[in-house]
Specification:
- The protein has a domain of 130 residues: 3-Layer(aba) Sandwich (Peroxisomal Thiolase, Chain A, domain 1), CATH 3.40.47.10.
- Helix content is 34%, strand content 18%.
- The protein contains twelve helices and eleven strands.
- It has a nine-stranded mixed β-sheet with strand order 3-2-4-7-1-8-11-10-9. Strands 5-6 form a two-stranded antiparallel sheet.
- A hairpin with a 4-residue loop joins β10 and β11.
- α8 crosses α9.
- The two termini are 16 Å apart.
């Protein structure tokens, strides 16, 4: 079992935050996490900051930003981490490695992204560079286009599941409407999500606007500490297991619709945790597009290939179901500020496990699954979390 515990966290509300620049987002997340963990800045041994950048802001050299908010962090080693949409989790796993190696005992992790100050076209082009550029971005494929290919292939194999994707969107928007941290707090309902209209146009067939996650600004942070030093923490969360697997970057090298990378990551994490998927109380999964959430159901082992729709029909993944998926609203409604996403997913899982998630609380949550993905199922990270007490 990993020897690092999460002892405090912060999560700024996501959204179009015109008044907040990247430095301010990092600063606020830093200060709030240290305060929540009851840790003085001088106790921090190392910092990892997850920030994709990708040209969406001019400043990419952000590793010392936390020190501007907390001068007590000065002289600490700080490293920026990037791994596409799994950037935040990559930063967390680097922090865990520093603790487990003995190089650090207390580590600050910050995930942050400022996306809405850039035009939609520029954001789309920047994100497309996280694909295999020679075959994908250079051929005009955006990430909406890439995941449209996932949906097209899935539909060809298992029939038209447009209504299934609309049910996922409607579920996550309803969840997000109850989450004060979410970018979009509005319950659109199934009929709106399932109907192509001026307000819900096709973005890349068969994906509609409601099938696509949001471009957001945001930041979240965690404080990790070695297990022996976190014994007295009132809210320590342990990593029962983690798994990180990478697949080939080109989609042409993979049967991508089988979601083999996510499947392997889930299998490894659950095996290392000594758990089964049915043992989970809830999961926060990477629904960058609704088809990704549908494929994740099957990668987790909740349903056989092509049968994920039944989990929505029988209520398994709904609030109050056997395994609620994305009670936070997910990337779909909570938002997807790239570098912040993985940290956010772990932070909201910590809230659930400590009974502090408010209106989105899953009653009796004991074991959490977190799945953060980079690119077209290229980077696949799964964490299994539980409260120490």
């Amino acid at each position: 079992m990993p020897a690092a515990h999460i002892i405090g966290w912060s999560h700024l509300p996501f959204g179009k935050l015109d008044a907040l620049d990247l430095e301010t987002l990092v600063s606020r997340a830093t200060t709030e996490a240290l305060r929540h963990a009851q840790v003085d800045a001088g106790e921090v041994d190392a910092i990892f900051i997850g920030h994709a950048g990708m040209g969406m802001v001019r400043e990419n050299f952000v590793s010392s930003y936390p020190m501007l908010a907390e001068p007590g962090l000065r002289w600490r080693p700080s490293t920026r981490v990037e791994n596409a949409c799994a950037t935040g989790t990559a930063a967390i796993y680097q922090a865990m490695a520093a603790i487990e190696s003995g190089a650090a005992r207390t580590v600050l992790v910050v995930g942050a992204e400022k996306m809405t100050g850039t035009s939609g076209a520029e954001v789309t082009a920047a994100l497309a560079n996280a694909s295999y550029v020679p075959e994908e971005a250079a051929a005009g494929l955006t990430f909406a286009g890439i995941f449209a290919r996932f949906a097209q292939e899935y539909f060809e194999r298992y029939g038209d599941h447009s209504a299934t994707l609309a049910r996922i969107a409607a579920k996550n928007h309803a969840n997000g409407a109850r989450n004060p941290l979410a970018h979009l707090r509005r319950d659109f309902g199934f009929e709106f999500c399932n109907t192509v209209s001026d307000k819900n146009p096709i973005v890349a067939a068969p994906l509609r606007k409601t099938d696509c996650s949001l471009v957001s600004d945001g930041a979240a942070a965690l404080v990790l500490r070695s297990a022996e030093r976190s014994a007295d923490s009132p809210r320590a969360i342990r990593f029962r297991a983690t798994a990180h697997v990478n697949d080939f970057l080109p989609m042409s090298r993979r049967d991508f619709v089988t979601f083999e990378g996510p499947r392997r990551a889930w299998q490894l994490a659950l095996e290392r945790a000594g758990a089964k998927v049915d043992d989970l109380s809830f999961a926060e999964v990477h629904d960058c597009f609704t088809i990704a959430e549908l494929l994740t159901y099957e990668a987790m082992g909740l349903a056989k290939p092509g049968e994920g729709a039944r989990l929505l029909e029988d209520g398994t993944v709904m609030p109050g179901g056997r395994l609620p998926i994305n009670p936070s609203g997910g990337l779909k409604a909570k938002g997807h500020p790239i570098g912040a996403t993985g940290v956010s997913m772990h932070a909201v899982a910590c809230m659930q496990l400590t009974g502090t998630a408010g209106d989105i609380q899953v009653p009796g949550a004991r074991l959490a699954g977190v799945f953060n993905m980079g690119g077209s199922a290229v980077v696949n990270c799964v964490s299994i979390l539980e409260a120490v007490r």
